[in-house]
Amino acid sequence: MHDEYRPNQPHQPPPRRSRLTRRGRLTLLAGALLGIGLATVVVEPLLPREEAPEKPRQLLIPEGWRAAQVYAAVDRELRLPAGTTESAAATAALDLPAEAKGNPEGYLFPATYPVTKDSTPAALLSFMVRTANRKLATKAVADGGKAHGMTPYQTATLASVIEAEADNPADMGKVSRVVHNRLAKSMPLQMDSTINYALGRNTVDTTLGDTRIDHPFNTYARQGLPPTPIDSPGLRAMAAAVAPTPGDWLFFVTVKPGDTRFSATYEEHKKHVAEFNRLRAAAGPSAKAPSGPPAKPPAAK
Fold first, then answer.
1. Three-state SS across 175-212?
2. How far from chain centre, in Å, is Cα 197?
3. Confidence (pTM)
4. What digits encode the pLDDT tens for the residues 88-103?
5. Are β-strands 259-263 and 57-60 bridged in parallel, bridged antiparallel, or unpaired?
């Protein structure tokens, strides 16, 4: 049976499947990306922005600094008025031995400490004291101190003298031996560094008048170690304090940088001091005076 013929209705071809041209594909892709971009623009303000983590600054405390120098450095690093850290030290809960009587001198361990916007003087000082306690508690230092009959506080005190007197780390063991030998013979230590601490200065030009001052830190006139540490000793000085180099020395003098002469007799020591004086005279008035026990015993007080 034939289909009925219907005039005025043209033949309709079968529908073709849609086929994207390259241009069409690119157009759709661009549209999709645009849609994603618009979504991002809308959503992004709703998400919290994460701040970049703060990079800590570095606070360097060198070996041999006194507490006053440490306080000033903390004030500067934290941009605080001068004296703020010193005041904080008086009230901070620092883990100090009873012998220290609240004075952190010798326990502000020399190292590099991280500083952030949240750092406080009390927190930094506490960190330094805890570090010093850990160093003093290391097996070598703790056992060595006990072998010499010293408390950790006495170890820190002796180490602070060694830190101040030694021309370089290689001499620390010998300087320690001089101190131990003098203590064993009940001789005054006669260390310029303790006079400097008493007078609040850093020179090594010690006069006869300086050796006669009435002060607890005058080790020319008083026997034994000074009553407290005189600076912040490092681990090398602590180790030297409890493990002195074997020897019979009682005197030493730094003739020139890198050349410290150790002597067992006063006569030998005088020769080394004479050499120093010759070198100093040739160098001019800017040269430093000798370190260590004096060339001439101080007059009796």
1. HHHHHHHHHHCCCCCCCHHHHHHHHCCCCCCCCCCHHH
2. 20
3. 0.79
4. 999 999 999 999 999 9
5. unpaired
Beta carbons of 64 and 232 less than 8 angstroms apart: yes
Paired tokens of 241: 């304090």
Contact status, residue 200 vs residue 230, Cβ threshold 8 Å: no
Structure-model confidence comparison of residues 7 and 260, the more confident one: 260
Render the chain in DSSP notation, one character per residue.
-PPPP-TT-PPPPPPPPP---HHHHHHHHHHHHHHHHHHHHHHGGGSPPPPPPPPPEEEE--TT--HHHHHHHHHHHTT--TTHHHHHHHHS-----GGGTT--TT-S--SEEEE-TT--HHHHHHHHHHHHHHHHTSHHHHHHHHHTT--HHHHHHHHHHHHHH-SSGGGHHHHHHHHHHHHHTT-----HHHHHHHHT-------TTGGG---TT-TTTS-SS-SS-SS---HHHHHHHHSPPS----EEEEEETTEEEEESSHHHHHHHHHHHHHHHHHH-TTSPPPPSS-SSPPPP-
Query: CA-CA distance, 59 to 75, in Å (whole number)?
Result: 11
pLDDT digits (tens, 9 = 90+) for 270-290: 999 999 989 988 887 655 444
Strands 259-263 and 251-256: antiparallel
Measured in residues, the chain has a length of 301
Domain limits, the chain = 58-136, 151-283
Location of structure tokens 């001789």: 187
Question: And the tokens for 117?
Answer: 């916007």
- 219-260 confidence digits (pLDDT tens): 999 999 999 999 999 999 999 999 999 999 999 999 999 999
pLDDT at 190: 97
Check whether 12 has a pLDDT greater than 70.
Answer: no
